[in-house]
Amino acid sequence: MSTVKAKLASWWSRTRAGTSAPSRMENLEGDAPLQAELLNADQMEERGRELAGEHRLRLGGPSESLLLRRLGENDSVIRDTCRVLAETIKHQRRVTPAGEWLLDNLYLIDEQILMARRHLPKRYSGQLPVLDRGVAAGLPRVYDIALNAISHGDGRFDQESLSRFVRAYQTRTPLTLGELWAIPIMLRLALIENLRRVAARVRKDRVGRDVADHWADAMVEVAQEDPKSLILVVADMARSAPSMSTSFVAEISRRLLGQGAALTLPMTWIEQRLGEVGVSIEQLVQTAHHEQAADQVSISNCIGSLRLLGSIALTGIIEVLF
């Protein structure tokens, strides 16, 4: 029992000190994945005309390093997430399907990031028309076009839909020749941006599961060695006030449910906590499964789109836009 208490004390002190997760991730988890209403080719054509009407340009170009700086941040987040996932596997913990996709295709993502840097000179984006308002204010107009193309396909695009989207946009507002040539690189940047956003969510999910694993390990050990003392561990968990995130609840439920009568105590406490805000364990577990499936689809779509970009010659993409 003293060993268990020592482990808990050590982990709790690290958590209080803020060392349980890489600090780099803390300010990067707020952006949701690029997921808008899924549109078919006809609907994308209509969306192109709508978007042209929404866009307003400003005088002067963007900061020359803005897109490159964001690309570097995206690279760091994706790599940090993959390092955490690799450590998770090393310690024989489960990784979500989205995490497996990310790890298996890190080499491809690295290649695409290198290609994006090579095709995006520091002064290149400064020559492109820039938006004056909206969430993409200060960024090249063509980058927002790429973001829209990606978000309405959940990370997936095809040449026909993209062509109709861009041509419809130009029926209201013509793009410059430089913007048309920039579309492939902007699509690549948008896909990497979306991968970073999903990776941040996968990393956040991993944090919740790590917390659940810490407490589940302690409770299972105490339940086997000294069941009467389990209430003390539950009290320690209650004092730590773990976030009742979908990932935490799903993982601790998976670890403890059906493992014996003694371990119903922590699950009862969690059920009571959730009941205070009007949700149940079953609801959060279902939400966790839905989020995992959505993340897997987003990552697989983005990977497939990056492969498509890599297989199509630059002139091939440009030709379908005219």
What is the percent of helical residues?
Answer: 55-70%
Our count of domains comes out at 1
Strand content: under 5%
Query: What structural class do the secondary elements suggest?
Result: mainly alpha
Count of helical regions: 13
The N- and C-terminal alpha carbons lie at a distance of: 72 Å
The largest sheet, given as strand count, sense and whether it forms a barrel, is: 2 strands, antiparallel
* Radius of gyration, CA atoms, in whole angstroms: 24 Å
Mean pLDDT: 85
Poorly predicted ranges: 4-30
- Secondary-structure element order, as H and E? HHEHHHEHHHHHHHH
Kindly state the number of beta strands: 2
How does the overall form come out from the CA principal axes? elongated
**Strand ordering within the main sheet:** 1-2
